[in-house]
Design goal:
heterodimer; A: alpha+beta; three-stranded antiparallel β-sheet; two-stranded antiparallel ribbon; elongated; B: about 850 residues; alpha/beta; Ubiquitin-like (UB roll); Alpha-Beta Plaits; Rossmann fold; seven-stranded mixed β-sheet
Chain lengths: ~170, ~850
């Protein structure tokens, strides 16, 4: 009586021995994530190289964990970081505090901050858990120069991109 | 008292004084009728149409004038066919108002929609975002959706500097005219105004330099949108991120109530002051602040601050510990055998000054205030302005006499309030004007609203006041006997006005006077008040325009003026203790062999000469109390953490006293105040709790209705307590003898005058103010300029006290002939009083 049960159980074991494994060999192999996965934040740029972030600190206001610190400064046409008058001179996220809820993304009026797919966050000390603007900002693509850049006066003086349909 | 009127707003009965506007009446009934252009301190204009309400009045029979009643026996209401602006319609008996009907709600929606047709949606980058009346009222009353096309929005200039301190965003302006009306009605300097019409309408500045007013920062507070922003706070922080601490302005004797907003800096993590905002105190600064108070705070966060105690070793100041430093000072104090001279700055708090005096008395030394160039402190204690006096509310029964002071430069908010009393500008219900007599040797800004301007020669200040006293005590005969009055018909006119007045306030300064001169002037003014019986009650008394913000506190704490030059005062002292005082910087020499101890914020000239330098805490880092010129004791609170190893001055003196066995150190500033209350009779009963007491003030600011009174903060931390004068305590006050001072003579006299924007240690470290700080200059009369062949802008050499100073010249009609005005603390010669000078043009 007991023997049948044991054979049954071993049968399951043997069956799985010949099936391909469903675990992945992390870190050699990384699993793909879903498109809307909320990983580490990135600060995005426009095509012309300007930062999307305008330093409005609405992300910091929306953050339930108080993980974001923003300090703003004023742009000028000779050294422009972002469209409009204001840019973030200091932008820090404390990844130890962040709960990856994505509220910052929702609050952002310029879609500058996006929770991307990097989830490999580990630190040896607390200070390196604070991601500064340099770490968060994505690199300028192609021919676009990195910020600050010099622009024609009067060309990029609107902070919020025009919306096609304000509703 | 005005008659009361009862009306019904949304069915609720409200009783208010006659003449009240509907919007105010509703406010008193806790009904917030939305407004943009209306401001309780300004005349109503009804420009924005946001406050539209339905108004009805009781119907009366045309023949009999009887009220027509309906079937329920209630008065029939005749509703006006169109909506009325609640900010321009005064209440009337039996009036009914509907502020929440469908018609009204609809109108508000439309007004908001209209305002937003061209308002940019840049709230995320707008400094007003978060405390913006337009934002709040749009959320509460707006339509939520616009029917206008986004593409048709006007795109205007975003960054228009109106001056060095104020920026205009033309897109955001909703043309409410609060800023222009404030400058025009309340300040009387219409340096900004509307240009063009309709959609092209914009705010422009007419002055050179732009927005040339000492009150420009206030327009950013009352702006209901983010159109006006200050250069200091531009993109500084979002309002909801700021920490709050109530404080008192440390710049002049007015003692404006301020609100410090602080935040951690992203650069080094240190907390810094982000902005200084006014805190409502209707008796002091109402809801206003001058630009020096608003923008002159950067000395607190300066990198030049002293943070560690320094000891002199091998002729070098080396870092040390507090224990070592205090031990050394205590040893020296003990060894000095009573030969200790202490000078305490007039900017120290009451607690510092009291412990300073206790320490010096304990070691048998002598204490005095520094610079101590103005006398009359004890007279202010005797016959000072009555408790509860509000300078802006003085009426027709009052004469205000301003002597030897340029109030606009020395105490801007007093100037502002006196101007209101004399002009009855703005929305002041009582329009009776006080009589303003301005006596000065030169023209000042206050002359513009004076009823009578009395001119005297520099040196005749005391004689002028004596002549007035003669005149009112001896009538016309007395006037005739006065030599000054014979030559000056204005004096006679002034005397008649004074004799006829029920109340009188004398505001005296020290322009052109040294300690003995200003003491004599104070005594002459006090005698004039006592002669007329204008002492010991509200609306009368003496008000000194002190050079320091806590000079009155220093007198009250028993740290009086030395009445002699610093070298004389410190002569023979083994130890010289300087707290917030920099006599070396003013050219005074301390005794060669004296051991000098300096407690300071910065490495001043005196600190460089010192043997021990103790780092002090700035007002924003500690608690304490200041006493303003009208003897109002006001408490300030810590806003920032202590910097480095700094300690408040009182703690240093108390610890020294303890080391020397003069009694245990008090545990906190509140405990020092308890000692003060026990030791000083007219401070009896004052505690930090009492100083923190508040009451409901009008107009109501802050709270839900940031749109009503502007962005100034409500007062929740204390209105302060005015100490009673001896006159009010019922003491008999004899008139003192007046000894007119000797007058300097010469063809040309250099007269030191005070400017609001100078290069003193407080304001020179606010870089934002630098464009407004002039280079050292002298101002001289056309006749004198012609004689020396000098034109405006020329370089001149001024020889005073045996030294030549090269300065710029300005020629104007303000100074009298034979006098050159020499602004203090601009880098020119430091003069204590009027000094003979020789002027020569420097050929370039």
């Amino acid at each position: 009586m007991m023997v049948t049960e044991i054979i049954k159980g071993l049968g399951t074991t043997f069956k799985h021995l010949f099936q391909p494994p469903i675990t992945v060999e992390y870190p050699e192999v990384t699993r793909p994530v879903r498109p809307r996965f909320k990983g580490r934040h990135e600060l995005k740029r426009y095509q012309n190289g300007l930062e999307k972030c305008i330093g409005c600190a609405l992300c910091a206001a929306a953050c339930p964990a108080d993980a974001i610190f923003v300090e703003a400064d004023e742009n000028n046409d000779a050294a422009r970081f972002s469209p409009g008058e204001r840019f973030a001179s200091v932008y820090e996220i404390n990844m130890l505090r962040c709960i990856f809820c994505g509220f910052c993304e929702d609050a952002c009026p310029t879609e500058a901050i996006v929770l991307e797919h990097d989830y490999e966050l580990s630190f040896y000390d607390r200070e390196s858990a604070i991601y500064t603007k340099e770490k968060l900002l994505v690199g300028a693509e192609g021919a676009a120069a990195s910020t600050p850049i010099q622009v024609q006066p009067g060309t990029l003086d609107r902070p919020i991109p025009d919306m096609q349909d304000p509703d | 008292m005005a008659d009361s009127i009862t009306l019904k707003i949304d069915g609720h009965s409200v009783t208010v004084p006659a003449g009240t506007l509907i919007v105010e009446a509703a406010k008193r009934a806790d009904n917030d009728i939305p407004v943009f252009c209306y401001h309780p301190k300004l005349e109503p204009v009804g420009m924005c149409r946001m406050c539209l309400v339905e108004v009805g009045t009781p119907l009366r029979d045309r023949e009999s004038g009887e009220l027509q009643l309906d079937e329920h026996g209630e008065a029939k209401i005749n509703w006006m066919p169109k909506l009325q602006t609640a900010c321009t319609v005064p209440v009337s008996a039996g009036m009914q108002v509907r502020s929440a009907s469908e018609k009204v709600t609809r109108a508000r929606k439309d007004v908001v929609e209209f305002l937003l047709t061209s308002h940019p949606l840049d709230c995320p980058v707008c400094d007003k975002g978060g405390e913006c009346p337009l934002q709040n009222l749009t959320m509460r009353h707006g339509p939520g959706k616009s029917r206008y096309l986004f593409d048709e929005k006007m795109q205007l200039q975003k960054r228009v500097p109106l001056g060095d301190l104020i920026f205009l965003d033309r897109e955001r302006c909703i043309q409410c005219a609060r800023c222009t009306r404030f400058q025009d009605e309340l300040v009387g300097e219409p340096v900004i105004g509307f240009d063009q019409r309709g959609r092209a309408l914009q705010i422009v500045t007419f002055s050179e330099p732009g927005f040339d007013s000492h009150f420009s920062g206030n327009t950013t507070d009352i702006c209901p949108v983010g159109a006006l922003t200050s250069a200091d706070f531009r993109f500084g922080a979002r309002p909801w991120e700021l920490q709050h601490a109530p404080s008192i302005c440390p710049h002049c004797a007015v003692g404006c109530n301020t609100h410090l907003n602080t935040r951690r800096s992203g650069r080094d993590g240190e907390a810094i002051i982000k902005r200084v905002m006014p805190r409502q105190n209707e008796k002091v600064n109402e809801i206003w602040l001058c630009d020096k108070g608003r923008f002159g705070h950067h000395f607190v966060g300066s990198a030049e601050r002293l943070t560690v105690p320094l000891l002199r070793r091998n002729d070098q100041l080396m870092e040390s510990s507090w224990e070592q430093a205090l031990q050394l000072v205590a040893e020296r104090l003990r060894a000095a055998g009573g030969e200790v001279a202490g000078l305490a700055g007039e900017r120290l708090a009451n607690e510092d000054l009291f412990t300073f005096r206790t320490l010096l008395e304990g070691v048998g030394g002598r204490a005095a205030q520094w610079p101590g160039r103005m006398g009359g402190g004890e007279l202010a204690q005797q016959v000072g302005v009555g408790v509860g006096t509000d300078l802006a509310k003085l009426g027709a029964d009052t004469v205000i006499l301003v002597v030897a002071s340029d109030l606009a430069e020395e105490a801007p908010l007093w100037w502002f309030k006196i101007r209101q009393a004399a002009n009855k500008a703005g929305a002041t219900a009582d329009k009776s004007r006080a009589t303003l007599i301005v006596a000065n040797a030169r023209e000042t800004k206050l002359d513009r609203c004076a009823t009578n301007s009395v001119r005297y020669r520099y040196g005749d200040e005391v004689r002028t006041v004596l002549a007035l006293t003669h005149a009112i005590s001896g009538g016309e005969a007395g006037l005739a006997s006065s030599i000054v009055a014979q030559h000056n018909t204005r004096v006679a006119e002034a005397a008649r006005a004074i004799a006829a007045a029920e109340n009188m306030i004398i505001i005296f300064g020290s322009e052109g006077l040294d300690y003995s001169g200003s003491s004599a002037l104070a005594q002459a003014c006090a005698n004039l008040l006592i002669t007329g019986g204008h002492v010991g009650r509200v609306g009368s008394g003496l008000l000194p325009v002190w050079p320091g913000n806590n000079t009155q506190g220093a007198w009250d704490m028993g740290v009086r003026s030395a009445g002699m030059p610093v070298p004389e005062f410190t002569a023979g002292a083994g130890v010289v203790l300087l707290a917030g005082a920099d006599p070396v910087g003013d050219g005074d020499v301390l005794p060669e062999d004296a051991f000098v101890v300096v407690s300071e914020l910065f490495s001043t000239e005196s600190a460089r000469r010192a043997d021990v330098v103790l780092p002090a805490q700035a007002f924003a880092e500690r608690e304490g109390s200041y006493t303003s010129g009208d003897r109002r004791v006001q408490r300030f609170y810590p806003a920032l953490p202590a910097r480095g190893q700094t300690l408040p001055d009182w703690q240093v003196f108390a610890r020294l006293s303890e080391t020397l066995g003069l009694g245990a150190a008090p545990t906190g500033a509140a405990a020092v105040m308890r000692q003060i209350a026990a030791a000083i009779p007219h401070y009896a009963g004052i505690t930090f709790e009492r100083l923190a007491a508040v009451e409901q003030q009008w107009p109501h600011v802050g709270g839900r209705d940031s749109y009503y009174g502007g962005a100034s903060f409500p007062n929740t931390a204390g209105l302060g307590v005015q100490t009673p004068t001896r006159a009010e305590m019922g003491h008999d006050l004899p008139r003192g003898d007046v000894h007119p001072p000797a007058v300097a003579s010469g063809d040309l006299l250099a007269v030191p005058v005070t400017l609001l924007y100078d290069r003193g240690s407080a304001i020179a470290r606010s870089e934002i103010m630098h464009p407004r700080l002039p280079e050292a200059y002298i101002e001289l009369n056309m006749a004198d300029a012609n004689r020396a062949d000098v034109g405006s802008g020329d370089r001149v050499a001024l020889r005073v006290n045996g030294h030549d100073w090269e300065l710029a010249a300005r020629v104007s009609d303000r100074p009298p002939q034979g006098a050159v005005l020499l602004p203090r603390s601009l880098g020119g010669p430091p003069l204590a009083c009027i000094t003979p000078a020789v002027l020569r043009k420097v050929e370039s």
